[in-house]
Known about the structure:
The structure holds 2 protein chains of 2 kinds. Chain A is 41% helix and 0% strand.
Amino acid sequence: MLSKADRSAAFAVAAALGLFFIGGLLTTVVPPLVDKSWSRPAPGLRPYTEQELHGRAIYVREGCWYCHTQQTRTLVSDTKRSGWRGVDSPISTPDEFVYDSPHMFGTKRTGPDLSRVGGKYDTQWHRTHFRNPRDLVPGSVMPPFPWIVNDEKEFQALVAYIQRLGRAKDWRPDKDYEK
Amino acid sequence: MAQGSAVQPQKGTESGAPPLHVDTTAKWFLLSSISYFFIVGIIALTIAAKFVWPELLGTVPYFSYGRLRPLHVNGMLFGWLLACDMGISYYIVPRLCGVKLWSEKLGVATAVLWNIIILGAVVALMGGYNHGFEYAELPTPLEILVVVAWVMYGVNIFGTIATRKYTQMYVSIWYIMGTVLWTTFVYPTGNFAVDFTTGVNQANLNWMFVHNAVGLIFTPIGLGIAYYFIPKSSNTPLFSHRLSMIGFWSLAFVYVWTGAHHMIHGPISQWLQTIAITFSVMLLIPVWAVVYNFFATMKGQWHQLRENVPLKFLMSGTVFYLLTCFQGPMHSLRSVNAIVSKTDWIPGHAHMALLGCFSFFAIAATYYIVPRMWNTRLHSDALANWSFWCMILGGLGFFTTLWLGGFWQGWQWNNPAIPFIDTVKALKPVWLVRFFSGTLIFSGIVMFAYNVMATVIGRREYAQ
């Protein structure tokens, strides 16, 4: 039947688009209609504050997301690695991300995953770490970000964003979050 | 005929009339894309060096890793590869249709607009104006210009096809038509529709674009080019028309379903992951149909590879295509994905597709058409051969170290007893080898770019 597309450009166009749209619509438009958990916020999830949004914009601008994923996958090792002080982290679920745009799930993990980093390190740690990561983590290949630390407003905003990551599930047993 | 078939001067039209094809548009696209290949190659080396020496250019915001990486990706994807592929299609389509390009004026305007977009992208990305989506990092105004340029390109291609003299359309034409059509929907999904969604829904649209930027933009235009130049440069007819139809129509149906395989084990519905895995495995059908067709075309002709540089690039590109498209379906399996996903294996895989396969096809076509378009001989066959060996050895060094290193990294991640920083330190030798392999690839790029520019600038016209 498709040999008709050899001679008729109109037929080729129609067939190429028709075949494409079956999968195109079924995998982009239909899934959010079927799975409502994609758009329902988690019970503990609140929208970002203005400062956190500013921090998030810095995270996007500096391309942090090229090296840090934000998803604790359904793998035991991920729940251990995102865990802290002997407690495993809960896995990431769609309802934790409904206020995220652009999403920061990431594809490459050059540095550790950050989906549960909120509350693990205090502000002073972050200040030193952004100035030169190797002062705190020998062997790290993270770039230094002196221009963020030198701008107190930017630095505070970025830390505010980092400290809320993964906190919607309030997963620490003793609420031992750092500030 | 095998002997340097790429360098035979082009015969004009037999009657002595002025040549049918002026190729101004193709020339503009090729020359600018090759310049970006060189310039962005420097960016690529810089970010590879940053893995080895993290402090390098560390205090200058414009040169930080997070800003140069998107510049590398977008520069190579849109500045080099897509622009070169578009230039080549401006050469192929009129010839397969037996008519002039529909409008050279529109074509040149497209080339100018494309260059404005790429230069705008350099400024925007180094300035930190990042849209925040992989492969779709350009700020919205530039993305709108991309759509405008794409429509201009599409009008020209379809205008040429609509006025064609030969009714029968060769495979390459279907692939190039498919590229124009699918991109028109895939690109806005990844660049505009994402802005109206959030979270997992947005990620799903983003990955639909990322996967299909490769699968429905670079793959069909790259294969269209290979379908034209493998028979041309080996002077051998294509093995099977039927197989090429199976390859094309299964690609049209299967590719678009697989976006969610970027989030396997992640926070996205399990059933959608399973659909993406199923269709990812089905990708083997279009891939093997195409690869078998290319190999069967070369049956009895392999000896030509000794002398024919474009054919060397084309056939090694085909082998890389087979390999990278075997990896893809395998990564999507949950068990394999648990090891390789998010590791350095993935850049190894991505570079094999876009450098090892599709850039090799584009380079082959460039070596073939540049002497013909300018009616001259290639500046140096020996240098072309050297560019091939530098790129393939550098490429193999790059791909294999990242696969081995990435696999090893994945095993280490799956043992939570190993602190994360130790898995970083373990990769340092891998990144050093990657940097040196990159240097070798870059030398190949320099030789390629120099050879083309020297051919164009120092050309001697060959009388018919």
